[in-house]
Amino acid sequence: MLHYEIGHVVTYKTFGGGIRHVKVKVREADIKNGRPGFAGRDIHSKGDVWGYDDQVIAYRRDVFKEEERK
Question: Is the Cβ–Cβ distance between 21 and 42 less than 8 Å?
Fold first, then answer.
C-alpha cells in the first residue's frame, strides 16, 4: 500500500498516457470499481480529478501554501 496522505501531491499516469500532479483531498479504499485511490485538485489546471493507487508513480508532501499559488 502507498503511504501518501491527504495534503500530499501525487504524480500519476493517466490512462491516456498523460502525467498529472494532484494535491490529494480524499483517499478511499474504493474510489471506483472496488479499487483504492484518491481524489483531489490538479495543481496546474485546478480541475478536480481522481485516480487509482496503481497509477501513482511518485508522491511528496506539498511544500507550497495555498496562498502562494494564486
Answer: yes
Grid cell of 11 as nine digits: 504524480
Q: In what order do the strands lie in the sheet with 8-13?
A: 48-52, 35-42, 19-32, 8-13, 56-61
On whether the CB atoms of residues 5 and 59 are closer than 8 A, the answer is: no
SS3 62: coil
Q: Given this model, what pLDDT does residue 67 score?
A: 45
Instruction: Report which of 70, 26, 8, 31 is spatially closest to residue 54, judged by C-alpha positions.
Output: 31
Residue type, 39: A
The pTM score is: 0.83
Query: What pLDDT does 68 receive?
Result: 46
